[in-house]
Each structure stands twice: as C-alpha cells, then as structure tokens.
TrEMBL record:
PANTHER family: UPF0111 PROTEIN YKAA
Designated name of the protein: DUF47 domain-containing protein
Similarity section: Belongs to the UPF0111 family.
Pfam families associated with the record: PhoU_div
Taxonomic lineage: Bacteria, Bacillati, Bacillota, Clostridia, Lachnospirales
InterPro entries xrefs: PhoU-like_sf, Put_Phosphate_transp_reg, UPF0111_domain
Length: 207
C-alpha cells in the first residue's frame, strides 16, 4: 500500500529494518573475525548505525505529528517503529556487553547465534518490503511464520548453549558474563518476532 504523495511510512519502515540488518551483519562479521583489539572500532561503527536508526525513527514521529490521515492507525505506526528500532538496539547491546566484559575469545557456538540473528533481521527486512503491499500480498503470512520459526530456533539454541556453558565451566566470572551475553543474543530473535507479531495485528485490523 504505497502513498501517492507525502511521507511514505511503509518505505520508512523498510529503511528502519535496513539498519537492523546492517547491525546484525556487523555483529556476525565481528564475531567471525574476532579480535578484541578491534572491538572499540566495531562498537563505534555499530553505534553510528544505531544513532542513524534513532534519527530515522524520530523522522517518522515528526511526520506523524503533522499527519492528518495516516495510512494505518497512529498507535500502530508508533509501535511498529519502536519495535523495529528495538531490534537494532538489541543487536548493538550484544557487542556492547562483549566489549564491556572485556571478552578475549568467542565461544564457537556463538557464531551460530549471530548467523541466526542475521537471518532473522534479513527476514524482517523482507517482511517490511512485503508489508508495503499488505492488502494484496500472497506471501506476507509465510514471512511472518518464518520469523516465528527462526525465533523458536533461537530459543532452542539459547537453551543448548546455556547447558553447554554450565557443563563446561564453574568459573563464576565466565558464567556471569556469558549468561548475560547469551541472554542478549536470544533477545535479538525475540525482538524480531515482536515485529512480526505487530505486523500480523496490523494486517488483521486492516483486512
């Protein structure tokens, strides 16, 4: 559903989700080529993306304040914008905590999780593209279901990694730091599912 004139909220949602995807790709690349000495640079790069995403979200809000008749309900625009932004924030949090805890080496299975997060964010991006035509789309539902499936995969990976963590070490510092990092990784997938859920609700209300 594209607007013929004025601010295009659907394109703005696509743009927001692109920031989430970029942040996820940086996270996975950082973990794959992990060097603790490079973390400050990667954190700075990630923060620039997160800051740009915040500005894009504020731009949506600024237009919404002046909008006479938005294409969908105002509350839905606000909620969806925030949910997409939360994905970017949660991905950034993973890198922030790895840097804050001064992690020197990455557990091998973490790469499975960051790859999954990248896939999840790519699916959200594709969902936002399809959302532009939500009243006529034949694939939107399948994209929502796929994100739900990826989130379930993330839950399973989280439980498996937590079990492996507590089976492999008794060191309290290592347990504390990696418990928190794994929680942050799992939250990224949860936030992606939150986006899919609000899209499903919007479609139901506007059908």
């Amino acid at each position: 559903m594209k607007r013929k004139k004025g601010f295009n909220y659907f394109e703005a949602f696509v743009n927001l989700s692109k920031y989430s995807l970029s942040s996820a790709e940086i996270l996975h690349k950082t973990m794959t080529e992990f060097k603790s000495s490079q973390l400050p640079n990667r954190v700075k790069e990630m923060h620039e993306i997160e800051h740009s995403a915040d500005l894009a979200k504020h731009d949506i809000m600024n237009h919404l304040v002046k909008e006479f008749l938005p294409p969908i309900e105002r509350e839905d625009i606000i909620t969806l914008s925030q949910e997409i932004d939360d994905v970017t924030d949660s991905v950034e949090d993973v890198l922030l905590f790895i840097n804050m805890f001064n992690i020197k080496s990455i557990r091998a299975e973490v790469l499975k999780f960051t790859k999954l997060i990248s896939t999840c964010c790519k699916s959200v991006y594709e969902l936002m593209i399809e959302f532009q035509n939500f009243k006529h789309s034949k694939s939107l539902h399948n994209k929502i279901v796929e994100i739900n499936r990826l989130e379930e995969e993330g839950d399973g990976l989280y439980m498996e990694m937590m079990r492996n963590l507590y089976s492999s070490t008794k060191d309290p510092v290592e347990l504390m730091t990696w418990t928190e990092i794994l929680h942050r990784l799992e939250k990224c997938c949860d936030n992606c599912e939150d986006v899919a859920d609000i899209i499903e609700q919007i479609v139901m209300k506007n059908s």
